[in-house]
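$ ./design --mode recover --in tokens.txt
reading tokens...
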């Protein structure tokens, strides 16, 4: 049931990005982590994938955040912290996502990201997915 749900959201994202309707997203990898995995604390990306998705079935209030870097590093030389009222993907060099229970986040796999606050003792369960576009069968 979860895989079908995530796949439907990946295909919704595919459409929202204006990608060809001759293709659909296919999940290629699924993995899970419980609490804090040291492997995710280093900045990384998923080079063989198109979209990545993280589902949080359990996320305590102060659990580790997911940090995603803005690939347009030039904006940090124009926009200073005092210019920004509300940080977002257009005005910040990184965005921090605080997980909550039953939350799904989808982002392009080529965006560098990592998990912050690895020493947290808070509960954090993640089921992660990678996908690629494949031709629809006719």
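writing sequence...
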């Amino acid at each position: 049931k979860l895989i079908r749900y995530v796949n439907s959201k990946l295909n919704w994202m595919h459409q929202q990005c204006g990608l060809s309707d001759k293709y659909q997203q296919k999940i290629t990898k699924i993995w899970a982590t419980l609490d804090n995995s040291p492997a995710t604390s280093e900045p990384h990306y998923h080079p063989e994938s198109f979209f990545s998705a993280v589902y949080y079935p359990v996320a305590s209030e102060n659990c580790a955040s997911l940090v995603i870097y803005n690939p347009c590093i030039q904006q940090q030389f124009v926009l200073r912290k005092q210019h920004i009222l509300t940080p977002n993907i257009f005005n910040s060099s990184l965005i921090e996502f605080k997980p909550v229970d039953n939350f799904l986040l989808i982002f392009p796999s080529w965006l560098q990201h990592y998990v912050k606050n690895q020493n947290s003792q808070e509960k954090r369960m993640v089921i992660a997915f990678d996908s690629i576009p494949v031709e629809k069968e006719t």
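exit 0
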